[in-house]
Amino acid sequence: MSKSIPNTSLEESQPSDFLVHISYECILQERAREFDSYIYEIACSIVYPATMGHLSLRITGANSYRRSNIKEVPVTYHERGATTYVELFEDEQLEVRIITLDGIYSKAIYVARKQELCEQYARQLTSNLQKMKCS
């Protein structure tokens, strides 16, 4: 994934929202002769004042919150927020949470389905999803 994530500031989103920019591409991964599965390669940038609260990212299975293993996603912090790279399989979900020091709770859930990454739920987060062309 050679394209860079745009340099967008928090002020460009809605005043009370944080900005989540996700660039992704979908790659066909043949695991067995009888079926194919997709891997979603995702570069994610979250713009928020890093000293303002706690950020967590995790991967869960779709519609199986209590039954599937939850994988925490490591992030790299910087003064504008955080960035990460993650791989999702078909029907997995990426969950982004930000809890500020004054108790404001923001959350978004994205689901990987049919070669697309879609926002399934958002609360006080503004999403910018960009699908990259496979090279």
Explain what the structure shows.
This protein has 135 residues and is mainly beta. The protein is 0% helix and 63% strand. The protein contains no helices and ten strands. The strands form two sheets. It has a five-stranded mixed sheet, with no helix packed on it. A hairpin with a 2-residue loop joins strand 5 (76-78) and strand 6 (81-89). Mean pLDDT is 80; it is low at 1-15.
Secondary structure topology:
Elements: E1 18-32, E2 35-47, E3 53-61, E4 71-73, E5 76-78, E6 81-89, E7 92-100, E8 105-113, E9 116-123, E10 125-131
Parallel strand pairs: 1-10
Antiparallel strand pairs: 1-2, 2-6, 3-4, 3-7, 5-6, 7-8, 8-9
Rough shape?
globular
The overall strand count is 10
Helix content: under 10%
Biggest sheet, spatial arrangement of strands: 5-6-2-1-10
Low-confidence runs: 1-15
Between the first and last Cα atoms, what is the distance in angstroms?
A: 9 Å
In DSSP terms (H or I, runs of 4 or more residues), the helix count works out at: 0
Structural class: mainly beta
Q: What is the H-and-E element order?
A: EEEEEEEEEE
Mean of pLDDT: 80
Let me know the largest β-sheet: 5 strands, mixed
- Strand portion: over 45%
Nearest-angstrom radius of gyration? 15 Å
Task: Give a summary of the structure in a few sentences.
It is built from no helices and 10 strands.
